[in-house]
Design goal:
With 197 residues, this protein is of the alpha/beta class. It has one domain: Flavin prenyltransferase-like (Rossmann fold, 3-Layer(aba) Sandwich), CATH 3.40.50.1950. Helices cover 35% and strands 18% of the residues. The chain is built from 8 helices and 7 strands. Strands 1, 2, 3, 4, 5, 6 and 7 form a 7-stranded mixed β-sheet that branches. The longest helix is centred in the first third of the chain and has 13 residues.
Amino acid sequence: MLKGKKIGFCVTGSFCTLDAVLPQIKLLKEEGAEIFPVFSNAIATTDTRFTTALAFREKVVDITGREPVDTIVEAEPFGPVRKMDLMIIAPCTGNTLAKLVNGITDTPVLMASKAHLRNQRPLLIAVATNDGLGNNARNIGMALNLKNVFLVPMFQDNPSKKPNSLVSDMTQILEASRKAMEKSQIQPVMIEKKENP
């Protein structure tokens, strides 16, 4: 179902989940999809204890065979010119989610997503935010009610130490992508995951 499909894969600054996302990009590629990476400003420029910006970029280029789009100017043509069959944001930070549902477009990822949605095609979001059950709970609700927007199933990653934190199960990106291509929300949206020791 994904063979030959064009997928924009957007990455935002939840740095601790990047290692979980890379195998999913590879899986999509192995399914035969063409992957067009898009980086937020933070991913494109920030070195952290998890990885450097350059090292992560090199891994994505190695998997996709394409240099990531990392400017708003480069991202704008995803709507009128570089039409995608599916756009994915994984991981999607609470900051990006909040801006998306409130119509704010100030990063390459948000521009690519906005440009993509104008074509009435599916956008799949894999949330990773420390306030998913706090300030961002309403934004998750808003996202679920937006036309052509779908969510990867999520869970509380550490209820005792971070009770408001939600992270999508990145291993479900492939199946959620198939569902989103059918304009269907994978269920259940909220899943249980054992707390990390």
